[in-house]
Specification:
Blueprint: E1 6-16, E2 21-24, E3 29-30, E4 34-40, E5 48-54, E6 60-67, E7 73-79, E8 87-96, E9 102-113, E10 138-142, E11 145-149, E12 155-162, H1 163-166, E13 173-175, E14 188-196, E15 207-211, E16 216-220, E17 227-232, E18 238-243, E19 251-255, H2 271-289, E20 313-315, H3 326-332, E21 337-342, E22 345-352, E23 357-358, E24 364-367, E25 370-372, H4 375-379, E26 386-392, H5 395-401, E27 410-415, H6 424-427, E28 430-434, E29 458-465, E30 469-473, E31 481-490, E32 496-505
Parallel strand pairs: 3-9, 24-27
Antiparallel strand pairs: 1-32, 2-4, 2-13, 4-7, 5-6, 5-8, 8-9, 10-11, 11-30, 12-29, 12-31, 14-17, 14-19, 15-16, 15-18, 18-28, 20-26, 21-22, 22-23, 24-25, 26-27, 31-32
Keywords: Signal
Length: about 500
């Protein structure tokens, strides 16, 4: 049975400058652990913020986007990769301005340690404590209930961690002198480059980009070196889009790899860190005995709404799955697509019914959300693998729903299983991009729900806004010792304030 007793030890508060700041759940992490954090940005804050994760050598190892709330705060989480080496890793924030430029909103440094035993004699002393100045927040503790006063209806975040393991005087708030200013664009953005198959820059004023999740087209402009900024509406998780040249040129678009200057300084390996590394490995073994992990991340991205289209004619192709290929299906059933076969090569034209003639060139095929004009590929598909087919051939509707690329009609094909042999030249057009991080609540282990030990050094993490005061209950833990409550909040004047409360958990 778990027993907890809370003894008041220390109450301190600090006033922070009104600039970009990052509140991390704990002072440092081990590779494989999850960090929870809040970003506080100067007002007016951008609606969407890009978070780039950078290694000590300056290379970007990951990225994602966060949505900010009305108070200019964005909350997120990140699992540090298990294979990381010890170093200062950086979270770099940026947003898209109304002038279509990318603004730097601050770069924050955080120590992450490799999961290995430290070498003998490599330890250094823990840094001396830096006493904070007074602030406006007030923390009180009664039993296991914490009350926060002085929030002024702004945004706030709270972390509760084991100070004995992570350092009693360690800082969890990192500040930046960078202050970006709006107006901002409410968009996700990706620096990219378009090259031809011959690796030459591709310049155009109109580069169509198809988003199959929304079944919609957007457009970008590429520079002389092929660079362009891809902008997409907000979405969660990850998806693939496709950039196609109007001129029929075989493109090789790619996202640009971002870099920061390399860091030469490494975080100190203190006795606190060494002790934590040893206990971390023991803790992982305990969780393995219970066939679980310390922190599970199971967020489900919200599905995007696909544009509703009304085809001019459609077919349930499974009714004709006995046909040997789609060429036979078009000949026998769907004659609007006229296909000719010459020397084992197919060529197709879609019938323009309103004008009572065939389009001059072959149609645009959309197969499982991917674009191609490969007549051979489509006609050699097996009807047994195709679930649905639709024709779009009315001019006004083509210009509205398939701008720039659908001038010769569109054939939509959905298969039972994603095609394995999509044409290589078209597959090279695809770009996989990451969007908004799905929201996720901090997983608190409840003693009444399972028998798995509650041994995480991070006892609690939460965020909120829009209240003058807030209360929460401290979860039970199987670890005894000193714990620190850290609160960071934005005041009504836009200033950031923080407060810290140290208490002890004792086992009776």
């Amino acid at each position: 049975m778990r027993y907890v007793f809370f003894l008041f030890l220390l109450l301190v508060a600090a006033a922070l400058p009104a600039q970009s700041a990052l509140h991390l759940d704990r002072p440092f992490h081990i590779a494989g652990e999850v960090t929870w954090f809040s970003v506080y940005l100067p007002q007016p804050a951008p609606p969407k913020v890009r978070v780039g994760i950078y290694a000590p050598d300056g290379s970007e190892i990951d990225y994602f986007f966060l949505a900010t709330d009305a108070a200019g705060r964005a909350a997120g989480h990140y699992r540090w990769p298990f294979a990381l080496k010890t170093g200062y890793y950086r979270l770099a924030l940026s947003a898209r301005t109304g002038a279509a430029t990318t603004a730097d909103l601050g770069t924050f440094q955080h120590p992450v340690y490799e999961n290995k035993r430290p070498e003998a004699g490599a330890l250094v002393a823990d840094p001396a404590p830096v006493p904070p100045t007074a602030g406006a927040l007030k923390l009180t503790l009664a039993g296991n209930r914490v009350t926060i006063d002085g929030l002024e209806n702004g945004a706030y975040s709270v972390s509760v961690f084991n100070a004995d393991l992570l350092g009693t005087n360690a800082a969890t708030v990192v500040e930046s002198t960078t202050q970006g200013s709006g107006p901002w664009r409410d968009t996700l953005f990706y620096p990219a480059r378009a090259l031809t198959a011959a690796a030459e820059p591709f310049q155009t004023n109109l580069l169509p980009v198809f988003d199959p999740a929304r079944f919609a087209f957007g457009f970008a402009k590429t520079e002389a070196n092929g660079d362009f900024s891809l902008e997409l509406p907000g979405f969660e998780g990850q998806k693939t889009v496709q950039a196609r040249a109007l001129e029929g040129i075989d493109l090789r678009p790619s996202l640009l790899t971002l870099r920061l200057p390399a860091l030469t300084q490494a975080p100190p390996l203190t006795q606190t860190v060494a002790t934590y590394l040893d206990l971390y490995r023991r803790r992982q073994k305990i969780y393995q005995l219970f066939a679980t992990v310390e922190t599970e991340l199971e967020a489900s991205p919200a599905a995007e709404k696909r544009k509703s289209l009304k085809p001019n004619r459609d077919f349930a192709v499974q009714d004709y799955k006995a046909f040997p290929d789609m060429y036979t299906f078009f000949k026998e059933v769907a004659g609007e697509l006229r296909v000719r076969l010459k020397k084992e090569q197919y060529s197709a034209q879609l019938y323009n019914a309103p004008n009572q003639r065939f389009f001059a060139e072959n149609p645009l095929y959309i197969v499982d959300g991917k674009l191609t004009r490969d007549d051979n590929y489509v006609n050699r598909l097996s009807p047994a693998e195709v679930s649905y087919l639709a024709f779009y051939y009315v001019g006004a509707e083509l210009r509205r729903d398939f701008p720039a690329l659908g001038n010769n009609g569109v054939v939509q094909i959905e298969t039972l299983r994603p095609a394995q042999k999509f044409p290589a030249a078209d597959a090279d057009d695809l770009l996989t991009v990451k969007g908004l991080q799905p929201s996720l609540d901090f997983p608190v282990r409840r003693p009444a729900e399972d028998d798995v030990p509650a041994l995480s050094p991070l006892l609690y993490w939460t965020t909120g806004s829009g209240t003058a005061s807030a209360t929460f209950e401290l979860p039970a833990t199987d670890d005894y010792g000193n714990y620190r409550v850290v609160v960071v909040a934005r005041s009504a004047t836009g200033q950031l304030v923080s407060a810290s409360h140290l208490y002890e958990v004792m086992v009776k």
